[in-house]
């Protein structure tokens, strides 16, 4: 696939060792895995590891166009709708675009496909923008609780996609160490998103609305590193990489189990995964009735209409905070290995910590 894309876009054929490797590495296979379903009343056959130049190019164009429109025009609602539709229900082309005699196929991106990763990045950003826009609108309208609830819902979904992206990047990083810088950035973004979510007052009980970040308290009985977290004191090369990585990720996985259902509430795509580190194919399979035969599948209900009125406890807020701190620490630790502890990313992390005091 890499060779095909390089040739179609740049008329360049790469002969490096990795591009020529056979069989391909696990990471390369995961980044390009697509499954196809025959769109037929009588045939829902799944074709794993599907690849067809024209079909893949069209789904790539669809995802890229949705993201490009968001970045250039600034329409986060449209971006969320298009990307979540293709992630949840797949991509199906108009029969007229298919060669005669070929079955119409619904293409599904694997959760680790590079287009899926691009979509998670865009969705995390778009939902964050939508949340900010609603908060700005709320500040102009007195006592508009609905806008505040919707803004909190957007913030939560942004955090969920950020965590899922961090988990996916981490999964690939374990097999491809060169992805360490990407993993560091994703963990930092996920951590910051969780801490922002802690400030979303509409989710939390009124009597704890003045809840403050417990920076001076012991946060984790297992991670002594997180308890003394300060980005300027992290020296990645002076400590046990294996011990810190295994220990911190184990805590992240355990805390995520408590938070995942809350984070994915109202988000059909992410709810299909048991946790943010489950990268099996989603358990839902598109049926012929969900296809509108115009590229994207049938519109899903917008998440903003699914805001909840349930008030969550201080304990749940504490879990989100602990998850955010662990993600932030792990990102800072990986960043120290890449850039040292005086990098721009270290400064960004320290600014996040300072804002919580």
> What is the strand arrangement across the widest sheet?
2-1-4-3-5
Total DSSP helices: 13
The tally of domains stands at: 3
> What's the end-to-end separation, in Å?
48 Å
Characterize the largest beta sheet: strand count, sense, and whether it forms a barrel.
5 strands, antiparallel
In N-to-C order, the SSE pattern is: HHHEEHHEEHHHHHHEHH
Strand content: 5-15%
Strand segment count: 5
Q: By helix and strand content, what is the structural category?
A: mainly alpha
Radius of gyration: 21 Å
Shape: globular
Protein name: Protein SET DOMAIN GROUP 41 isoform X1
InterPro entries: TPR-like_helical_dom_sf (IPR011990)
Organism: Momordica charantia
């Amino acid at each position: 696939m890499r060779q095909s894309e390089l040739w179609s876009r740049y008329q360049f054929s790469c002969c490096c060792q990795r591009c020529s490797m056979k069989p391909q590495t696990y990471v390369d296979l995961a980044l390009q895995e697509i499954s196809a379903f025959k769109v037929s009343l009588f045939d829902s056959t799944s074709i794993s590891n599907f690849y067809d130049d024209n079909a893949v190019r069209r789904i790539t164009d669809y995802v890229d166009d949705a993201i490009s429109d968001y970045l250039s025009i600034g329409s986060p609602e449209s971006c969320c709708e298009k990307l979540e539709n293709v992630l949840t229900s797949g991509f199906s082309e108009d029969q007229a675009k298919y060669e005669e005699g070929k079955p119409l196929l619904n293409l599904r991106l694997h959760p680790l496909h590079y287009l899926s990763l691009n979509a998670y990045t865009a969705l995390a950003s778009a939902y964050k923008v939508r949340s900010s826009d609603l908060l700005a609108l709320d500040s102009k309208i007195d006592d508009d609780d609905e806008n505040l609830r919707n803004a909190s819902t957007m913030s939560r979904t942004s955090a969920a996609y950020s965590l899922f992206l961090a988990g996916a990047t981490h999964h690939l990083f374990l097999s491809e160490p060169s992805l360490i810088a990407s993993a560091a950035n994703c963990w930092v973004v996920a951590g910051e998103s969780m801490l922002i979510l802690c400030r979303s007052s509409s989710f939390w009980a009124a009597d704890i609305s003045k809840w403050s970040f417990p920076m001076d308290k012991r946060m984790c009985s297992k991670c002594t590193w997180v308890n003394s977290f300060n980005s300027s004191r992290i020296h990645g090369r002076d400590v046990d990489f294996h011990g810190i990585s295994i220990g911190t990720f184990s805590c992240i996985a355990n805390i995520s189990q408590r938070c995942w259902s809350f984070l994915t509430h109202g988000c059909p795509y992410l709810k299909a995964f048991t946790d943010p580190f489950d990268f099996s194919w989603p358990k839902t399979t598109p049926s012929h009735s969900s296809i509108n035969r115009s590229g994207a599948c049938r519109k899903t209900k917008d998440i903003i209409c699914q805001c909840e009125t349930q008030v969550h406890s201080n304990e749940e807020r504490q879990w989100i905070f602990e998850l955010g701190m662990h993600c932030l620490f792990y990102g800072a630790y990986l960043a120290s290995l890449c850039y040292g502890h005086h990098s721009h990313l270290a400064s960004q992390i320290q600014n996040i910590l300072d804002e919580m005091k």
